[in-house]
């Protein structure tokens, strides 16, 4: 058996946060959905069954959560910060796929969400 790639995924994390260009968004806040997929070698974890040899997804969640607490005007800026924070916190990560969605954005449209999707590589 040969593993050619492996990814750790946190799918559709929900946050209430205060991002946005409009002043009201910074006061009232809104719902956000974030998904992260990190390209990381999980070979050792598959062989040894201990969390110390892999990327702990609870710690990955904390990195995302911490960035969600700091308001940004733009989702692009927020997503860039999250990606950079992940790469900094986990040097073993080779790439990050990241989606940040503002649920029901205040733009006068019937829209489930608006967001940004990034693919970041070292």
Helix-residue proportion = 25-40%
Q: What percent of residues are in strands?
A: 25-35%
- Average pLDDT metric: 93
Give the strand tally.
Answer: 4
* Helix run count: 4
Strand arrangement in the largest pleated sheet: 1-2-3-4
Radius of gyration: 16 Å
Helix/strand order, N-terminal first: EHEHHHEE
Question: SS-based structural class?
Answer: alpha+beta
Description:
The protein contains four helices and four strands; from the N terminus they run E-H-E-H-H-H-E-E. The protein is an alpha+beta fold. Helix 3 packs antiparallel against helix 4 (75-89). The longest helix is centred in the last third of the chain and has 15 residues, at 75-89. It starts with 6 loop residues before the first strand and ends with a strand.
Question: In a nutshell, what does this entry contain?
Answer:
The protein is of the alpha+beta class and 122 residues long.
Topology record:
Layout: E1 7-17, H1 23-28, E2 30-39, H2 43-48, H3 57-68, H4 75-89, E3 95-103, E4 113-121
Antiparallel strand pairs: 1-2, 2-3, 3-4
Helix pairs in contact: 3-4
List keywords for this structure.
alpha+beta; four-stranded antiparallel sheet
